[in-house]
Design goal:
Length: 343
């Protein structure tokens, strides 16, 4: 790795504003490249640092891409700086916690392929997470060389958002670096998300010059096996940084209300025009969304997926107490209905 500066690592006034004079004089900023069970690896102007954590800081609270302050002489991490962006996904059982995927990402390459993996509903989930985190999403559709009509996939993907950048590529082509260069300049950070077997590792290797292991997809269902098992930060020769993440087939959402609305703007903007504030966009009178469906301005399948994500987000975001209260009310309703049926 060539000699690094803070600017080259992605440092900006946003992080500098969080430091006081004493910290500037005694501590060193570093960017986390790898998180282990009991230590982390950071990149800094003085080199690569292996750091243990101060009491009160756990590795669960540190993500790849984070900026931290450390004491290089003691090899200790003392503070995690506030993040510009944070990519997380919902957890189960209403814990109120999210699983941190990566930090301080500028662009999320949402990767799918020109085969059975292409799934608009799954892409919308990734888009909701990216929008909620204020990360710029770019959809990459790989295996464009293996279909007679890649434009058909591009057209479907572009319908999933306004001004959404969608690229159909051959992951093994020599043009990958040039195609993705606008998002991989000095100090910029990108990450990949998507199912396994769609070529994420191949594209990552093309960007970084690495040789990570890849595995072919299964011909029967177009799915692949996970080849990236941990998150890590890699330098891109064009000056940017890539955070590689494991393939994620199951992707829950929680507390991403803004992200869902931003993913379905043609629906969320119309919702404010409905006659009733609590309109379910079903059969209520004065529903602006249903009127738009009738006129052909809104895709009814998009509305179904919008409502499904909204329900899932509401359930995943509620507290344990709220969940118990909801289950109690449902139980009373079912018991009441049963008694009436038995009469």
């Amino acid at each position: 790795m060539t000699e690094l500066t803070r600017d080259a690592l992605g440092w900006s006034p946003f992080y500098m504003s969080q430091l006081d004079i004493e910290e500037l004089e005694t501590l060193t900023p570093a960017r986390i490249s790898t998180v282990h069970r009991d230590r982390v690896i950071g990149l800094s102007e003085i080199g690569t640092l292996e750091l243990t954590l101060d009491p009160g800081i756990t590795t669960a609270a540190v993500g790849v891409g984070d900026w931290v302050l450390c004491n290089p002489e003691q090899h200790r991490l003392t503070r995690v700086l506030d993040r510009k962006t944070e990519l997380s996904r919902g957890t189960e059982y209403h814990t109120g916690e999210k699983q941190l995927i990566a930090a301080n990402i500028d662009t999320l390459f949402i990767t799918t392929s020109c085969n059975n993996d292409f799934n608009p509903a799954r892409l919308e989930r990734y888009l909701a997470l990216a929008h909620d985190a204020l990360i710029t999403p770019v959809i990459l559709i790989t295996k464009a060389d293996q279909t007679d009509d890649p434009d058909a996939y591009v057209d479907q993907a572009r319908k999933l958002g306004r001004d959404l950048e969608v690229l159909a590529i051959n992951a093994k082509s020599d043009t990958v670096i040039e195609t993705l260069a606008p998002w991989c300049g000095k100090g910029q950070t990108v990450a990949f998300a998507g199912s396994s077997g769609v070529g994420k590792t191949t594209v990552a290797n093309a960007l970084t010059g690495g040789h990570a292991a890849t595995q072919d997809i299964r011909e029967d269902d177009a799915r692949g096996r996970h080849t990236t098992t941990g998150r890590s930060l890699h330098q891109i020769p064009t000056g940017g940084w890539l955070i590689d993440t494991p393939g994620m087939r199951g992707l829950g959402v929680a507390e991403v209300e803004y992200g869902i609305d931003a993913t379905f703007p043609e629906i969320s903007e119309l919702a404010d025009q409905c006659k009733f504030r609590d309109c379910e966009h079903d059969s209520e009178p004065g529903c602006a969304v249903q009127a738009a469906i009738a006129s052909g301005d809104v895709d009814p399948d998009r509305l179904k997926r919008f409502k499904k994500l909204k329900r899932e987000n509401a359930y995943a975001s509620e507290t344990i107490a709220q969940a118990r209260d909801r289950y109690k009310k449902l139980g009373k309703m079912y018991r009441s209905a049963t008694k009436k049926k038995e009469r």
